[in-house]
Amino acid sequence: MTMPAPSFASSIAILFRFFLKRILRSRRFWFGSAGGAIGVLALVLARYLTGLDDVQAFFEQSTRLAFFNLFVFIFPFSLGVALISEERHRIAYFFTRPIPRFAWLCAEHLAISSLSSLVICLLFLIFLFGSYFSNPMFLVASFGISLRVMISLFFLAFCYTWIPLIFGVALGESGRFLSLIYFVIFEFGFGAMPFAFRFISIGFWAQRLAGIELGGWMPETVPEVGPGLALFVLFLFFLIFGSFGAALVSISECQMDKG
Amino acid sequence: MMPKVRALGLSRWHGRVRALANLDFELGPGIWGLLGPNGSGKTTLMRLIAGLIAPSLGRIEVCGEAPFANPRVLGRIGFCPEPDAVFPEMSAFEFVSTMAELNGFSREEASSRSRAILEQLELGPVMDRPARNYSRGMRQRVKLAQALVHDPEVILLDEPMAGVDPLSRHAMMREIHRRGAEGATILFSSHVLSEIEALTNQILLLVKGHLLALGDAQAIREMLQGYVHRVRVECDRPRELALRLLETFHEIEKIEFLDPSLVEFSSKNADLLYESILREAILGEFEIHSIVSPDDRLDALFQELIKRNVRHS
After folding, report:
1. What predicted TM-score, i.e. pTM, was given to this entire model?
2. CB neighbours of A161 closer than 8 A, spacing ≥ 6?
3. Residue B300 belongs to domain spanning
4. Among A79, A224, B45, B308, which has the minimal tally of Cβ within 10 Å of its Cβ?
5. pLDDT in tens, B269-287
């Protein structure tokens, strides 16, 4: 019996529900979240044990190192590569349905990035309230920047999720390693460089949107960028990666000729 | 009637390796067995028909259109891939009903269809448990269920019986038979020739990417005219029968006594050999227990065609 194919949006909704359940039932997700929570609690503990007086400096350094350089990379990356490598032999189930192939990639992306950003934002809130519950004035004063940090992390998780997915679709198993190389070179390498080299890193734009102090090598040489431009560039990165993913998954065989 | 699957000069390379070479065939409704040894191109052919990969040369058509990434055609195909891969976190019901929804059914319709097909495949009691606890046979049935849930016109089953227990095999065979009888075009690949024999006598033989034969077992036997056929006779006096046959039938190539009551005759003229054996059996009043030809079984034909292909190449 041939039925009219579901619309693009319905296909994404059906697949999103499916992938969300899969991720929520996976041990990897819960172990990762628990690991992240332990890391954040260690950070909170460090704040009290070291008795740091400069609350602003601690807030900015911890946010940059723990959230922008670790959590926002590790969640989309680990969930993305796991899903792609597990999907190798299952992709045929989706690609033999009357739906655009891009719907599959979009739904995978949406499930990973929404869960990643949710966990990261929850971890950030634990960090914020854990570190500063004794200093409610700082909590109130930092409300604006905290909100900007969470929005930036949200956008960054959405951009970062494309990278392991696209590499996985294009290269299969070796996509894991190459996406890691991409992160090391373009995100952590260029993201710590002086001058405008830093513009290549998506993480740099997210940090500019958040409005936190820059780290890395000679941050004073990096040209000043406003949050409006940062938001626009992040959106541009998202669109470029998304379009590339759409083209790739629609015209390529996605490693289906192997094994 | 228009064929459901048509290949026209179909070729496919994987890098420098030629997986399929210039195939031409048409498949109409019914069950078709796809036979061939490992590396013969069966899975590549299945993936081409399922629209997962595109031809390097030539054309493949399903219901008159090229299937590669073509949603119009894909809704009419049900594909059961060969790898033993289901989603361990999901139950059979969740998986199959999601697949049905992706074929355009509403959630309610997808649920009822999924329950029905899983019941038919005798997975009712376990359909709501996560698939990580399923046996191999159950996983194979889940894979078959997702391929059938939307009642496709073209069903592609890539070694669906691999590693399946007899109970699962029976349930799967019954369902495939039913779909074939209802008019679906089913292409079924297997290494186990008895599985093909139990389902159909329409076969495609693939060896090293070449289509060696297409048709029923009888047509393929006719192709084998000129090759040595064997007939085994189990009787009370095999040596006497052999002697009588030697005197009257001069096209015997070889006589072999397999045990005290079993003799095997070989000849290029199978029909005349049968006739002569029966005539001598009646005239000599032999007590015949059985007359069989090992060449009647598909595996014998298969082996013969492979040998023939090797000789030609």
Report:
1. 0.84
2. A76, A79, A80, A109, A112, A113, A116
3. 223-312
4. A224
5. 877 888 888 888 888 889 8
